Amino acid sequence: MSVQTDKEQFSFQAEISQLLHLLSHSLYQNREITIRELVSNASDALDKFRYASLTSGQNARCDDLRITIEPDKENRVLTIRDNGIGMTHDELVSHLGTIARSGSLDFLKKAQQTGEKTADLSLIGQFGVGFYSAFMLADSVEVVTRSYTEDRGWRWESTGDGKFSISEVSEPVERGTSIRLHLKDGMEEFTEPTRLKYILRKYSTFVPHAIYLAAEHINDQPPIWVEPKSTLTEEQYHNFYEYLTHFPGQKPLWYLHLAADSPFQFYSILYCPDQNLEKMGFGRADHGLHLCAKRILVQNDNRDLLPDYLRFLRGIVDSADLPLNVSREALQDNTVFRKMQRVITKKVLDHFDTFAEEHKDAYVRFYREFGVILREGVSSDHENRDRIAKLLRFGSTHSMQTSDMVSLEDYCNRAKEGQEQIYFACGTDPDAVMRDPNLEVFRSRNLEVLILTDPADEFILSHLGEFQKKQIVSVDAADLKLPPKEDDPSKSDEEKSEADKDQQDTPPNLEALISLMKESLGDQVQDVRRSERLTESPCCLVNAHGSMSTTMQRVLRMNTPEFEMQKMILEINPGSPLVKRLAELVTNSDNHRFIRDCSQQLHANAMIMAGLAPNGNEMAARLQGFMLELAGSKSSIVQ
């Protein structure tokens, strides 16, 4: 029997205590994930030891790294043992007493919002807290460990009550870590070899180290990434995806199996998850790809093999041309690695091209989920910017009545003859966008407009600038260029003549009206001018050349209080009945005060239509004045 020194007592970090309460009281039935998580942690410990021995020059023996599962039915104890890197005293305190990753806090918050009794704990391993799933099975947990860097061993113990103890083990301890689960009542199934074998083969088939249940080698499957594609089944690909991601029972949207022999050799399997965790509120994804050198794991979180805008992909890359002792800094400077990164990125973009062409509906589903990340490549990857631009998708007036999304290429193929620009409109939702007066001319002339409801889309398009030599502009831009008008074959010559007359029927005193409106509005606007884009509304606001759209400016102002909106141009519609009447009244100076008030109100109306806030007190007083004047002109005599 081992002799141990006095125990040191510690308290868990507050978040750990919350997590243990959640796990201890959860009614989640799939408690077998505990085995999956502890085996995964053991595999990581073996990887770390192999990497440390290869890079430290110690040349420690690595040919017998293994994970051993030892059930003790009589005493209701399950032991999971590895001969990996082990832990020191301080590492025990750090690794098993605190949460190091903010993602864990997000996990807790999400689980508590869902409700402890119904929380789905199957994803727990993604957030760095898989060890604590042990308390789903055990009343108490004992960890005996020895780091490869020292000769003494340590014992960690806890009953999950908010505290843990650490003591030194005086007798010799083998290198590695042994976790003993003292199982709760009703958990005897986890000492049954048949049950354990099923769990291990379900979750841990592709763990890259030997797993032994008693004397039986459980996971004898070859690494599928080096196997020919023709020999693999969908089930094998999906099982490997579950192993890599800890997404039990979930299938990826798609996978891509790559192999290259020249000018360098590598094998890779890449997966696209079914859901975007960033959209689910778990923050920015920080998972990378598994990087292997000659089937030996070098890094399990390499974030440099793919550009950041493809960070949602999961998978493994194995190359025989990388040294085993390569560091992250060396990887970034390694010529082979940089070429490999370029080739893998190209292969992924090739796959996107084919996927978008051959499976349009599935691609739109993918884009709705991950387009928010993919589009970042337009501004960050200059080499592939045009390729990424082809993969973008947007709502459009062409598909307003459907859930379809259109590409820039589709848009250009439908563009009118002589159309030099790609038009887009921004707003909080499609209905709000369609109420924008700036769209009137596009509706009347059947010109397609992209509908953007995410301000980031405008930023991306503004960065892109043009596509297929067509400038990309907002419908509220002052430098809008419309293609030549097309004759409408459905209209008679008389109707066409009448329409042309209406268009040319400019009020004789329009310039005098514009001059008075400029005087009234002063420095509230950059200019007042005649509009060529309005067909119904009396006026609208447009942005001067080189300015951001109104929506983008509004977003910046909400997030940056010191941001000042740029002065806009007020355009008036000479065909509007109101504008025509004001132009008639302008000849009489007695009407100028009324016209000045109308100018202010038209500007306020245009601000509201553009999603901006006019001076409410001034507008209310002005409207009351209009109503009073109108009421005074009414007769109270019943006719």
Q: What does this molecule look like?
A:
This protein has 639 residues and is an alpha+beta fold. A hairpin with a 2-residue loop joins strand 18 (466-467) and strand 19. 38% of the residues lie in helices and 18% in strands. It has a nine-stranded mixed sheet with strand order 1-6-5-4-7-3-2-8-9, covered by helices on one side. Strands 10-11-14-12-13 form a five-stranded mixed sheet, with helices on both faces. Helix 8 packs across helix 9 (360-374) and helix 8 runs parallel beside helix 11 (385-391). The chain has four domains: 8-217, Histidine kinase-like ATPase, C-terminal domain (Heat Shock Protein 90), CATH 3.30.565; 224-361, Ribosomal Protein S5, domain 2; 394-487, 3-Layer(aba) Sandwich (Rossmann fold), CATH 3.40.50.11260; 501-626, Four Helix Bundle (Hemerythrin (Met), subunit A) (Up-down Bundle), CATH 1.20.120.790. It contains 21 helices and 22 strands. The radius of gyration is 34 Å and the shape is elongated.
